[in-house]
Write a structure and sequence with these properties.
- This protein is of the alpha+beta class.
- Helix content is 53%, strand content 9%.
- Strands 2-1-3-4-5 form a 5-stranded antiparallel beta sheet, covered by helices on one side.
- The termini are far apart.
């Protein structure tokens, strides 16, 4: 919602030696204040600057001017008041003798004042620099948005151009490398690329498929070779273990053969003893009762 002026009230401010109120029509887009010299036009403009900018207005353009002259010639600084009423609120400004005090402090209308000294500088400025001198006093949101959009578009185009230029350079380098790797078969890399592009790729695709099949067979053979080597390693380990077990078995067999010979000799002598001593009734070793006939049969079976 835009702010419209309703009333400006001055008391003891600059040329307003008496309290004065100036009413504005909020329905009008432009308000023009005109009058003879000394009728208070500058006082009205300075009042807006005093309240909205906390500035002393035209007094600041005059070197050596005393800020206390902001109060009227018949008034005191403590009695100075500037009251601005708009369609959005009312603000009151007073002078403490050193500073401007505004109540309330928030929501003040935005004011831009173009003074005589600034107008003179504008006239003396080079034509191409005059917009810079006036841009703070002009509201051109559409132009600003268009300029910003144009700047954004230029930036985007430049970024895209840089990206494509970099991609083109990389493609050129890659093409040159391929051309060199092929032995520079044509007058240039571009000519060679066009010739290659026009070739029938059916045969090349078949060759690629055959190469893929060979590579797959090679990979299968590598896996089979690896499996065979693993199996060979396991077989070698098993062979070593077998030979060791066989040697241990022979040693045990030799021990067993020696023990069996002693046992046979013992059994044979026991039979001879039973035959030599007919009618023996007890074992000569453990003195257990035995039957000679059945004992001899058992010894023979052993």
């Amino acid at each position: 919602m835009s702010t419209k002026l309703r009333q400006l009230a001055l008391s003891c401010f600059r040329g307003a030696t008496q309290a004065v109120k100036i009413d504005f029509d909020p329905d009008k887009k432009i308000t023009m204040i005109f009058g003879e010299n000394g009728t208070g036009k500058s006082s009205i403009v300075d009042a807006f600057s005093f309240l909205c900018e906390q500035s002393f207005g035209s007094l600041e353009d005059r070197s050596g001017a005393d800020k206390k002259h902001i109060a009227s010639i018949l008034g005191r600084p403590d009695d100075l008041r500037v009251v601005l009423t708009t369609t959005t609120g009312t603000w009151k400004a007073s002078y403490t003798g050193t500073n401007v005090k505004v109540e309330p402090t928030g929501g003040l209308p935005d004011v831009k004042i173009l003074r005589r000294s600034q107008i003179l500088r504008f006239i003396e400025t080079q034509p191409r620099q005059r917009f810079e001198a006036l841009k703070d006093y002009l509201t051109v949101p559409g132009v600003d948005r268009s300029e910003q959009s144009l700047r954004d578009a230029v930036r985007d185009v430049n970024e895209e151009l840089n990206r494509l230029t970099q991609a083109y350079s990389q493609a050129q380098i890659a093409l040159e490398n391929l051309w060199n790797a092929e032995g520079k078969p044509s007058i240039s890399a571009e000519t060679w690329a066009k010739e290659e592009k026009g070739k029938d790729l059916t045969k090349l695709q078949q060759e690629c498929e055959e190469i893929d099949s060979i590579l797959q067979a090679f990979r299968d053979a590598e896996r089979a070779r690896s499996s065979w080597q693993n199996a060979r390693t396991r077989f070698s380990s098993a062979e070593t273990a077998y030979q060791k077990a066989l040697a241990e078995q022979k040693v045990e067999e030799q021990k067993a053969v020696g023990q069996t010979g002693l046992l046979l000799n013992l059994l044979s002598k026991a039979i001879d003893y039973l035959r030599a001593t007919k009618g023996v009734r007890s074992c000569p070793v453990c003195q257990q009762q035995v039957q000679a006939d059945s004992l001899e049969n058992e010894l023979q079976a052993r």
